[in-house]
Automatic annotation (TrEMBL):
Cofactor(s) needed by this chain: Mg(2+)
GO CC annotations, alphabetized: cytoplasm
UniProt source species: Streptomyces curacoi
GO MF, one example: ATP binding
Catalytic activity: 1-(5-phospho-beta-D-ribosyl)-ATP + diphosphate = 5-phospho-alpha-D-ribose 1-diphosphate + ATP
Annotated Histidine biosynthesis HisG C-terminal domain residues: 207-278
EC number in record: 2.4.2.17
Gene name for this UniProt entry: hisG
Name of the protein described by the UniProt record: ATP phosphoribosyltransferase
GO biological process, one term: L-histidine biosynthetic process
Pathway noted in the entry: Amino-acid biosynthesis; L-histidine biosynthesis; L-histidine from 5-phospho-alpha-D-ribose 1-diphosphate: step 1/9
Its job: Catalyzes the condensation of ATP and 5-phosphoribose 1-diphosphate to form N'-(5'-phosphoribosyl)-ATP (PR-ATP). Has a crucial role in the pathway because the rate of histidine biosynthesis seems to be controlled primarily by regulation of HisG enzymatic activity.
Family: Belongs to the ATP phosphoribosyltransferase family. Long subfamily.
Keywords on record: Amino-acid biosynthesis, ATP-binding, Cytoplasm, Glycosyltransferase, Histidine biosynthesis, Magnesium, Metal-binding, Nucleotide-binding, Transferase
């Protein structure tokens, strides 16, 4: 069986389970379950701390896992990202009191407090900055006020917490993170079960990104209509019973669907419908 690590809690857990369910895999019914077997799909799921998943995968005990890009890099594990999943996105930034520094180039000789020591130490080293890194498990905003560090490095969403602490973001982002599928570095990526798993998840990602659009239009307007809805390969075009009319079907980006419907209507298309896509293979 394919052995897969899944986050057992936190911001990664719910969306990961939802995606796996959409991909056709059984998921646990109770949060206390640490392992389940999906015999129909020949998969065994292990529910682990997100921070530990890259380490388990790098050991070779598990085939692949779902974790955060930030946790993968911070772990220093012998594992690599093979598929971004598009949820649990976050941005890591430096922050400090106004006037202390403008960017990473000003941090030499300072102390940086963070919950992600591996990420920060690597970023400082990559930029040739000699600074100390202090590991804290949480509430890093208070590190400056209490004199533990001059700078912090943390996840920044709106920046409200930082402003409330009298801090400002400095420099370029350290990194952008999201949920990813990981495997042991150098592992054979052509293993059939792994490829099937990845195809299913890719199918979910596409299904979430696109909708199916159907409409009728006059033959003389077909080229203009197809230019608006080119589809992934090419739209399906079928003649209608009424002469001079055709039915068109194509996948379109969900976020652009309303605009496309307006443009189609303006060129004379009618009976314009969109439907959700629940699964696909490209």
């Amino acid at each position: 069986m394919l052995r897969i690590a899944v986050p057992n809690k936190g911001s990664l857990s719910g969306p990961a389970a939802e995606m796996l369910h959409e991909a056709g895999y059984q998921q646990r019914r109770e949060s206390k379950e640490l392992r389940i077997v999906d015999p129909e799909n020949e998969v065994e799921f292990f529910y682990l701390r997100p921070r530990d998943i890259a380490i388990y995968v790098s050991s070779g005990r598990l085939d692949i896992g779902i974790t955060g890009r930030d946790l993968l890099i911070d772990s220093g594990a012998n594992a690599e990202e093979i598929l971004p999943l598009g949820f649990a996105r976050s941005t890591f930034r430096y922050a400090t009191k106004p006037g202390t520094a403008k960017g990473v180039e000003d941090l030499s000789g300072m102390t940086v407090a963070t919950s992600y020591e591996g990420i920060v130490a690597k970023h400082l080293a990559d930029n040739g900055i000699d600074a100390s890194v202090v590991h804290l498990d949480g509430a890093v905003e208070t590190a400056i006020e209490l004199g533990v560090a001059e700078v912090i490095a943390d996840v920044v969403e709106t920046g409200t917490s930082l402003r409330n602490a009298g801090l400002e973001v400095i420099g370029e982002p350290i990194m952008k993170s999201e949920a990813v599928v990981v495997r042991r570095t150098g592992e054979n990526g052509e293993e059939p079960k792994v490829q099937q798993f990845l195809r299913r998840l890719q199918g979910v990602l596409v299904a979430r990104t696109y909708v199916m659009m159907d409409y009728d239009c006059r033959v003389e307007q077909l080229e203009k209509a197809v230019a608006l809805t080119p589809g992934l390969e090419s739209p399906t075009v079928s003649p209608l019973h009424n002469e001079g009319w055709v039915a068109v079907r194509a996948m379109v980006p969900a976020k652009e669907a309303q605009r496309i419907m307006d443009d189609l209507y303006d060129i004379g298309a009618r009976a314009i419908l969109t439907t959700a896509i629940h699964a696909c293979r490209l």
